[in-house]
Amino acid sequence: MKIAALQADPTLAVSIEQTLRLNGHQCTRYLSGRALIGALRGRSFDLLMLDCDTPGLPALEVLAWVRRTLGNEMPVMLTGASNEEGFVAACLAQGADSYVPKPLRTAELAARVLALLRRARPASADCDLEHGPFRFATAERQVWVQGKPVLLAPKEFDLAVLLFRNLGSLVLRQTMVDQVWRYHMDAASRTVDSHLSRVRTKLALWPHNGVRLSSVYGLGSRLDAA
């Protein structure tokens, strides 16, 4: 899994990176909150680790941006020197999925990361999807709208499933490229837009069907209940 770590302490960063890589993850380190936010505008990650002791833009402000812009599906773990109950409670109340106090224990850190990723990607990922008049049989790669079958091309089907699985959350263009096309392609490619347009038209993703597909300029698209 791809993990982004906001961590300014070089010694701690090395420990975190080694722990994650030994457990099969890719780790990209960012020295500032602004650098991480800039990266999130064009890159997709499976989990974020934010150090509350990083100077500059506070980790809680980065967290607020993530929840406001990317939604609630992205797992976010906070770390920090404080283990004060009120501070930890505030972090969780503001949208963190987990808080790990320092000093970090590598085995515990690896286990917490695995737990968050498992929660975000349940084993039932291939089960059928239903929302309002939309029903997907993912194993058979079939979709119905208002009980009527709709024929989608393979990439259109994958893109539609990705949008419905992230209903209410922003799906980055890079995430679409990574999970639908699975090969190197510029996230700004018009191929993404043309597929989104066809999915919108074929599935009638309009408010009268209870959903609205909108674009966030330069970032991605989000499907919301209307």
Task: Explain what this protein looks like in three dimensions.
By secondary structure, the protein is of the alpha/beta class. The chain has 2 domains: 2-120, 3-Layer(aba) Sandwich (Rossmann fold), CATH 3.40.50; 129-225, Arc Repressor Mutant, subunit A. Helix content is 41%, strand content 23%. It contains 8 helices and 12 strands. The protein has helices spanning 10-22, 33-40, 59-70, 85-93, 106-120, 154-165, 173-181, 190-203, and strands spanning 2-6, 26-30, 47-51, 76-80, 98-101, 129-131, 134-137, 142-145, 148-150, 170-172, 211-216, 220-225. It has a 5-stranded parallel sheet, with helices on both faces. The protein has a 4-stranded antiparallel sheet with strand order 6-7-8-9, with helices on one face. Strand 11 and strand 12 (220-225) form a beta hairpin. Helix 6 (154-165) packs across helix 7. The two termini are 32 Å apart.
